[in-house]
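Notebook entry, structure prediction.
Reason for the run: the old model in the group folder had no record of what sequence produced it. Starting over properly, with the input documented here first.
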Amino acid sequence: MTGPIVRRGAALGLGAVWWWAAVRLAVARDAGVLEGAVAAGGWGLSLLPVHCVAKSRAVGAVAAGRWGAAWRGERGRGGGDGQSGAGGSGGG
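New structure, fully documented this time:
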């Protein structure tokens, strides 16, 4: 029960600090490095994915080594993209 409360409280508190910094940067003449760092840091955190799971548990995850095998021209098990390969007889 305390886990969700703590997470929401932390998110609310950090969000309030970010908004304070963003508004202060836009309005105050004496805003400085602290406000800029807080605003840039909060924006940077918004770029991170929020729904991360282990690759083994992810639905639709690509198997390890698949892209390397495709780069080397190897056919994987069940290779389901329906293309015949790079050296086909394309009309040009």
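Summary: Residues 20 and 26 are 10 Å apart (CA to CA).
The old model has been moved to the deprecated folder.
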